[in-house]
Amino acid sequence: MNKYELAVVVSAKLEDDDRNATIERVKDIITRHGGTITNVDEWGKKRLAYEIRKMREGFYYFIQFDGEPTVPGEVESRVRLMENVIRYLCVKQDGK
User: Fold this and answer.
1) What is the pTM of this model?
2) What are the pLDDT digits (tens) for 29-78?
3) Alpha-carbon distance values, 22 to 12, 44, 71, 80, 93 (Å)
4) Domains defined along the chain, listed by start
5) H helix or E strand, kind and range, residue 10
6) Cα dist. 56→10, 13, 41, 42, 49 in Å?
C-alpha cells in the first residue's frame, strides 16, 4: 500500500454542516474504494492565491490515506464532480 495526501479546498460560502457533510463524502469515497484514512487536517478558512468561481476564500482540508495505486484515480474522478469542492490535488507521499 502507498501513502497519499489529498488536499481539498471547499467553498467558503457553505454553512458548517454542509462543509462537514462534503468532507464526510470525500472520506466515504476514499474508504469505499479501499483506502484507509490515517489523518484529517483542517486548516480552516484561507485566502486563495487567485479568484476561483468569483470566490476569494476557501476552507482547506488535508486528508492522508493509505491505499492501492488505483485509489487516487477513483477518488479524483468522483471529487471532480462535487459542486462544493473548488480545488483538489492528490499526491503520493514519499516513503522516507
Assistant:
1) 0.90
2) 999 999 999 999 999 999 999 999 899 999 999 999 999 999 999 999 99
3) 12, 14, 19, 13, 24
4) 2-92 (3.30.70.60)
5) strand 2-11
6) 12, 10, 21, 18, 8
